[in-house]
Amino acid sequence: MTIRVLLADDQALLRSAFRVLVDSEPDMEVVGEASDGAEAVRLAGETRADVVLMDIRMPGTDGLAATRLISADPGLAQVRVVMLTTFEVDEYVVQSLRAGASGFLGKGAEPDELLNAIRIAAGGEALLSPAATKGLIAKFLAQGDGADEERDPGRTERLNALTGREREVLVQVAGGHSNDEIAERLEVSPLTVKTHVNRAMAKLGARDRAQLVVIAYESGLVRPRVE
What we know:
By secondary structure, the protein is an alpha/beta fold.
């Protein structure tokens, strides 16, 4: 199956470079380009994109606002957003994940990293590495980034709906572990882990694993640590 990619960046030169890279892959195709967030939201629906490479900083509707709009639209439930940022230590990254992004990638990433990120997001996984996304979540939640009022207190209550095993799996997901790694740690099958992850997402109202990690930290199930 061909992965349909939408490019959202206000710099035409960067979009052209990304288009050449993506279109060079046999399992991907660029289905549209947007120069701002509003256009990205519109094209996400019109092109039936699977993955949006979304720049955070754009004029008008920025990438963060656009990601919120995409995440809130039931008709775009299949769309996965990968945020692109100039600096990997970016205060907007955590807000992006809260808004519904599946992960983030620095614009200085190697071509193979970008292509791998698209495939990971399209497959329903999240770009979570202990040294990057998870570390940033821990850092900003620990320091406080003015988002306390944005948190949903109901999420903490919904944790009570999780079974003991689902909580265990959620802790492992927050640790940045894959289904196979979790299966080995808990001595169950990867399919069982996937089932627990899907049930946890449904109960907690999370779009994907990235949001599960945020919820795990925000609810206090996992405590952030700052090195």
